[in-house]
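Listing S7. Sequence submitted for prediction.
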Amino acid sequence: MGIMAMLGLASAAEVAEGTKAPAFEAQDQNGAQVRLSDYQGKAAVVLYFYPKDDTPGCTAEACSLRDGFAAIKAAGAVVLGVSADTTMSHKAFAEKFHLPFSILADPDLRIIEAYGVKMPLVGIAKRVTFLIDRKGIVRKVITDTRTKDHDQQVLAFLKGMS
């Protein structure tokens, strides 16, 4: 086993493109229960995992998705962020940066582990985005996230999905 594999850096997400997205339910920053099934048949889902609220890369990524939110919505998708932070941490983060989408709290790592994006040792989420179609199928897994223009990465794939 190589050092990259030992560090968990080379491993791809366990949830592959073309497979059914694992169901989940979690509370967002406003205390609302959010389920993947809520969007089935209604909207594509941009499910993005990130390590920690209010850190430089995570803030750049969230603000990029905020800035592209109208275009993402117009492309028929919703944005859901997930990290191991608490709802209180998410609320402060969302308010500070005026984030218009739900950020799900996953302190027990249920969703993070279901999607295979847990960082070994530190136990937080890797930066990975899953684009899930209206039928609940993963259409794209983005592991090479460009934090400053992640909205453009997402939009390019959403346009190809419709």
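Caption to Listing S7: primary sequence and predicted structure tokens for the chain studied. Residues 15-161 form a domain with the Glutaredoxin fold (CATH 3.40.30.10). Helices lie at 3-7, 56-67, 69-74, 87-96, 110-114, 150-161.
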